[in-house]
Design brief:
Elements lengths: L1 H11 L11 H16 L1 H7 L9 E3 L2 H7 L3 H21 L2 H26 L3 E6 L2 E4 L4 E4 L3 E5 L6 E6 L1 H7 L4 E5 L7 H11 L5 E2 L1 E2 L2 E2 L20
Parallel strand pairs: 5-8
Antiparallel strand pairs: 1-2, 2-3, 3-4, 5-6, 6-7, 9-10
């Protein structure tokens, strides 16, 4: 794609005496700075850490939506470059390249608008109710009868649950499901507390350096996860 953009850019600027340079470094620095600021806990506190609707589902937080908009400077810089290029082509009277430049400008403007609309529109990131658990990365909900246990927090800010063997085989996927919690504003302990609030009998398995402690009941050297009641 980048090669195609470069080829089109070279063709559009061919008749110009001075080539236009895309401000890559300032744009990258601006994006990095915005994303870093929004990753701070203080930013979540100011913008609102949680966004829960009336149905009890956690929607994309304001901080995460703005963080995703950090790519917008790329679109803006490209749009400004195309407008300047169109003006230069108009001045020299190259109508063919001017038409192409205006078409690319209109296309980029439409893409930028759609990207901003889709990013600013909050979506359901996590839903925990009597029917089961839904997370946006999973693209579907899993019933409580399909979930064997949840994994005790440790490491990344994400929710981890493990499906039963039957559910994993039926879905043709790995038994371990993970969902990042940053878009929800929740922390792992809070997510597990929400799971337990709806399904108090849900087992919680500790996370070890070798992976999950599987629910092997009756073994003397492996803890029975149904008895692991803490998840702090």
């Amino acid at each position: 794609m980048l090669i195609g953009v470069q080829v089109v850019s070279n063709w559009l600027q061919w008749p110009l005496k001075t080539r236009l340079a895309f401000p890559l470094l300032p744009v990258v620095l601006a994006i990095w700075g915005v994303r870093w600021l929004l990753s701070l806990e203080r930013a979540e506190d100011v913008l609102g850490r949680l966004s829960r609707d009336e149905a009890g589902a956690w929607r994309t937080t304001r901080a995460d939506r703005i963080r995703r908009l950090a790519l917008l400077p790329f679109f803006v810089a490209g749009l400004v470059s195309l407008v300047v290029l169109s003006w230069e082509l108009w001045r020299i009277g190259d109508l063919v390249r001017l038409t192409a430049s205006l078409l690319f400008t209109a296309w980029l403007l439409a893409v930028m608008g759609f990207y901003a609309w889709k990013t600013l529109r909050p979506r359901v990131e996590l839903r925990i109710d009597a029917a089961g658990v839904f997370a946006a990365p999973w693209r579907r909900a899993y019933g409580w009868d399909e979930i064997a246990f949840a994994v005790q927090p440790g490491g990344p800010r994400e929710l981890r649950v493990v499906l039963t063997d039957a559910a994993a085989e039926a879905r043709g996927r790995s038994a371990l499901l993970t969902a990042p919690l940053t878009p929800t504003g929740l922390y792992p302990n809070e997510a597990l507390a929400a799971l337990r609030a709806v399904q108090p009998s849900l087992p919680i398995a500790p996370w070890t350096s070798n992976g999950v402690v599987l629910p092997i009941r009756g073994a003397t050297d492996v803890p029975d996860i149904s008895k692991v009641g803490t998840y702090g």
